[in-house]
Amino acid sequence: MIAARVGASRPALRERADMAEDGGSPANDRLMSLETLSEQRCFGGTQGFYRHASAATAGAMRFGVYLPPLAPGAKAPVLYYLAGLTCTEETFAIKAGAQRVAAELGIALVTPDTSPRDTGIDGATGDWEFGEGAGFYLDATTPAFASRFRMQGYVVDELPALLAARFPALDTTRASIFGHSMGGHGALTIALKNPSRYRSVSAFAPIVAPIQVPWGQKAFPRYLGDDRDAWRAYDATALIEDGARFPGTLLVDQGDADKFLDVQLRPEFLERACRSTGQALELRHRAGYDHSYWFIQSFVEDHLRHHAQALRG
What whole-number distance in Å separates Cα of residue 93 and Cα of residue 99? Predict the structure, then answer.
């Protein structure tokens, strides 16, 4: 492993949560309703998967919550994990092996799906790099996708409000965020744009400069139109170049055997931007590791302990 260090919103939908709890309108009650899909005991806590009607994505959304064992009356801080292309709310929970350490640290893990599903939008299925399963954690503006593909608003605003209303053992005021690949891109851009919302941010093999690589150049015109200046709001490297800052260190792990490294991920772009602007970055190059969840399993404990330290502060 080679480590390199460089450099040094929207409001939550509290009104909806309060109305639902206080017997508000039927429409608001519906938006804050929650269907339990499954719950299993896991390392003394509970791994659950849930579905609800989302205003942000104009349809049903699924998410997972791992609630660690807690003393009576205690609340757990929240660590959001954003998954990558083709993944779902179940991928990290099943493959990463994070619950054991989360239970030890008293951290709740929240895993939203990567996009709305069953949208019926022409072109939203049939391509693993775009559309359903590939929402890129942005708020689309093109007419075809703007009504459904609003994943940034969902992650930043709607999901935390729902959690605050329906999971009394979660302390959503203490939150951090991380992700993998497309989800690493989402975690970095969301934290950079909402630095007061998150106490720490990290990523595994993130797409750090989507406007400069094929994945972003394919997806962004369809979600955001042809104005490349508008794309910069969803590009971690461009955000830092344009003045966005996160008050803590950006922690990034990247395997050097990753087949997407040289064409799609390009961590050197992020490293260069952080060095030139003073944004603190710890970029760790992991020898022999690829893009898979074997890589994530190997270093997820490091990331959880990094976030736990920030969440306790």
Answer: 8
147: nearest Cα among 116, 126, 186: 116
CB atoms within 10 A of CB 143: 8
Q: Which domain holds residue 87?
A: 2-312
Measure the CA–CA gap between 84 and 114, rounded to whole angstroms: 7
CATH assignment at residue 101: 3.40.50.1820
- The reported pTM is 0.91
pLDDT of residue 9: 30
Evaluate whether 6 touches 274 at the Cβ level (below 8 Å): yes
Rounded to whole angstroms, the Cα distance separating 229 from 99 reads 40
- The domain total for the chain is 1
pLDDT, tens digit (0-9, with 9 covering 90-100), for 212-235:
999 999 999 999 999 999 999 999
Count of alpha carbons within 13 Å of 82, Cβ hemisphere only? Answer: 33
Q: Contact, 191 vs 43, CB < 8 A?
A: no
Radius of gyration of the chain (CA): 18
Q: Strand runs (DSSP E) across 34-141, as ranges?
A: 35-42, 45-54, 59-67, 76-82, 108-112
Do residues 258 and 290 lie in contact, with contact meaning Cβ atoms separated by under 8 Å? yes
Catalytically active residues, by annotation:
181, 258, 291
